[in-house]
Amino acid sequence: TYQNPTIASNPEWAKRARVYFLFPKSFTQSGTINGAAQRLQYIKDLGFNVIWMMPVMKNAYPIDQHYGPGYNIVDFYNVAPEYGTNQDFKNFISQAHTLGIKVILDVTPNHTSRFHPWSQDAHLFKQNSRYWTWYEHTNIPHNSNGLGQSFDADGFNYYSGFSEQLLNYNWTDIDARAEMINAYKYWIKDFGLDGYRFDVYWGPHRRYGEQYMGKPLRDALKHIKPDIFLLGEDDGTGSGTETIYADYTSGGINGGLDAAYDFKLYFNQIRSFGFTPGAIDNLNNDIINAGFYPGPNSLYMRFMESQDEDRIAYFYSGNNSLGATETFKRTMPMATAIFSAPGFPMIWNGQEVGFGYGISGAKEDRARSTINWNFDGKTLLIPHYQRLAWIRGTYRAFATQNFARIATGNDGMYGIVRSFDNENGISLCNMNSTSTKATLTIVGSGSSQNVLFSKGVINGKPYFMNDVYNDTSYIISFASGSATFDVTLPGYGSAVFILSDSVRKLIVPTITAIVDRNSSAQNIPTEYSLSQNYPNPFNPSTVISYQLSVNSYVTLKVYDVIGREVATLVNERQEAGTYQTTFNAKGLSSGLYFYQLKAGNFVEIKKMLLTK
Questions:
Q1: Over the range 554-578, which residues count as b (16 or more CB within 10 Å of their CB) and which as e?
Q2: 86-98 vs 174-191: helix axis angle to the nearest 10?
Q3: Contact between 14 and 194 (Cβ < 8 Å)
C-alpha cells in the first residue's frame, strides 16, 4: 500500500533494509570505487538491499586501512583520488540502483579536517575570517562519551580522543549550517544518493540540540528527495533517545533521524555474550527495550561488527582457544537473533566469511585490512547470512515492530515470534554447543504472547511450519485453538519458520564466490571482449560489461548517430579482469547510440537503443 511520505516518516524500503557496510580499501585488492562496483552483484545475491559506503570524499591524507579511514575530510564535494573520480561514484550508485540496491554515504557533520580550506582561513585570519564562527571555540559541557574536550593553539575546540585533526563544527552559525547542508544536497541531487550515515551525530546533537542540525538538515534533504534514509551515530534505544528521531516533537522541533544505533545491545550483550541461559535472558531484555519504541517510524540498527569495533569472531574465539570452526558456529545463532529482531540488521564487509579470527595485532588489522575472501569461515557463514538476509527481505513479519519471546522448553534455546496475519515468523537460535530440542506451544487466538493468527485458527485444519532457513515444511494441527510443535537443532543451529496455511519456500540465487584477480591466474580472461549492453533497449540506464586480458589503458565512450561523443564512462588504466559499468541516458533523446571500447590495440563498437 502506497503511503505518502511526511517529514516524520522513513522510507518503506528502510523498514526492510539489510545493510552491507562497505569499505573499498578492505573490500577489494584495488581498494577503489570501481573495484567495489565489480562486486555489486555479489552483494545483491547475498541478499542485501542497502550499501552503507565509508566516506569517499577527499581527506587531508590518502585514505588508509588503519587510522585514516576517511573521516578527515578537506573537500566535501569531490571523491578522494585514491578511490577514483566523481564519475566513478556516480556510476557505482547508478549500477547499484540497476540491481535494486540503495546507497547511503558516511559523512562528518560533527567536524571538518584541520586542513580544510575553511579551517585554514580561520586559523590564518582568526576573528577576521568569515569562517571563524563556523567552528566551535567554547567548551559546551555535555556527554562526550569519555573523549573529553580540548582546544588547539588558536582556540579551536575538538574532542580530545579524536585529536586536533578533527575540529568541531558550529551548527548554530547560519552560514556554516547552510554551507554544510548544500554539500549534502549535492550528493543527493547530482549523484542520486539515497541517504546518509552521520558520523558522530551525537556531537552536534548534544552540544546544540536538534533545532540547529537535525531538524534543518532533515527538512532540507527530505524536501528534494522524500524517501532518503538518514542514519545517525548515536544511542537510539531506551527512554530519552526519542529526541533524535523525526517521530518525536518537542516545542515544534522534530528530531533529524530515521534510525540510530542500538549501542546498548552491542556493548552489553552481543560483544561479550556468555552462551548461558542468563545471557539469553539479558539479550532478550535489551532487544525488547522494555517494550519501548520512540515512535512508529523509528528504527534501530542492530549489528555485531563495525568499522570502529573488533570482529565478532575475535570476541567469540576465546582467545583462539576454541578453534576456527567452533568460533564461526558460535556467531551464527547470534546473527539469527539480530536478523530476526525489530529495527534492521547491518553487517561489516568480511563478517560473512568470519574475517578477523586468528589475526593478531591491533583491531584495525582485523577490522580494516584487505579481506581474504577465501577465509576459513566462508563455507559456514556465507550461506547462513544469505538465507537470513533473504528471509528478512521476503517475509513481511520481519518489517514490523511486533516482537515477543516464545517459550522453547529449553533454557538454552532462544525463541522469537514476529506476528503477521497468515505469514508469521518464528526464529529459533540454539545457543548450546550440543544438539537441543525445542517444544513450542502456539496459540491461534487470545491474549497469549504466542498468538500468531489475529483472526483465529480452524481446529483440525492443516497448517504449515515452513522452516525457510533449512528448506523444510512440517504440518501441524490446532486443537482447542492451540498446537504443539517439536524440533531439534544441532549445536549453535538456527531455524526460521513461516507459520501459514500454505507451504512457503525461500528461493535464493547462487552466489559466485569472490576471487581476487591477483589470487588466481585462472580467473584472468584470455582475450579482450566487449559485451552487448543489458538491458537493450533500455530506459534510462543500462549496464555495459567488458574483459581485459592484460593490464591496459581503457576508454569506454558513448556516441550518438552522427558521431558526437555524449559520455565518457571509463578513462583510466585497469588491471586484467572483468568489468562492468552503468550508462545513464537521463536527459538524452530516444534513439540509436554507439559505445566504443579501446584497450591497448583492441577497439570494438556496439549499438544500443534508448527508448522513452
A1: bebbbeeeeeeeeeebbeeebebbe
A2: 60
A3: no
Query: Whole-model pTM?
Result: 0.85
Residue 520: what pLDDT?
42
Any idea of the CA torsion for 167, 173, 174, 177, to the nearest 10 degrees? 20
* Alpha carbon distance 498, 427 (integer Å): 9
Spatial separation of the C-alpha atoms in residues 455 and 11, rounded to whole Å: 29
Instruction: Measure the CA–CA gap between 23 and 160, rounded to whole angstroms.
Output: 26
Cα torsion angle, 469, 470, 471, 477, sign: negative
CA distances from 100 to 213, 350, 449, 532, 581 (A): 31, 22, 36, 21, 15
Cα distances (Å, whole numbers) of residue 47 to 60, 292, 352, 393, 506: 35, 29, 12, 8, 12
Q: Read off the C-alpha cell for 234.
A: 548515536
Contact by Cβ (8 Å): 245, 295: yes
Q: What does the H/E/C string look like for 357-425?
A: CCCCCCHHHHHCCCCCCCCCCHHHHHHHHHHHHHHHHHCHHHHCCCCEECCCCCCCEEEEEECCCCCEE
> What is the per-residue pLDDT across 420-462, written as a single tens digit (0 to 9) for each?
888 999 999 999 999 999 999 988 766 555 657 767 788 999 9
Residue entry with cell 567536524: 111
Higher pLDDT: 300 or 389? It is: 389
Give the chain's mean pLDDT.
Answer: 92
Q: Which residues, including other chains, have CB under 8 Å from residue 124's CB and lie 6 or more apart?
A: none
**Tally of CA atoms within 13 A in the half-sphere of 154 that contains its CB:** 18
Sign of CA dihedral 325, 326, 328, 329: positive
Residue 1's Cβ-count burial label (10 Å; 0-12, 13-18, 19+) is exposed
Q: Which helix (H) or strand (E) holds 46?
A: helix 40-46
Beta bridge partners of 482: 443, 479
Distance between first and last Cα of the chain: 27
CA gap 405, 503 in Å, rounded: 24
Which cell numbers in the block locate residue 506? 525461500
**Positive or negative torsion for Cα 340, 414, 333, 509:** negative
Q: What are phi and psi of 425, to 5 degrees?
A: -100, 135
Helix (H) or strand (E) segment spanning residue 281 = helix 277-288
Strands 102-107 and 19-22, bridge-based pairing: unpaired
Helix (H) or strand (E) holding 237: none
The strand pairing partners of 593, in sequence order, are: 608
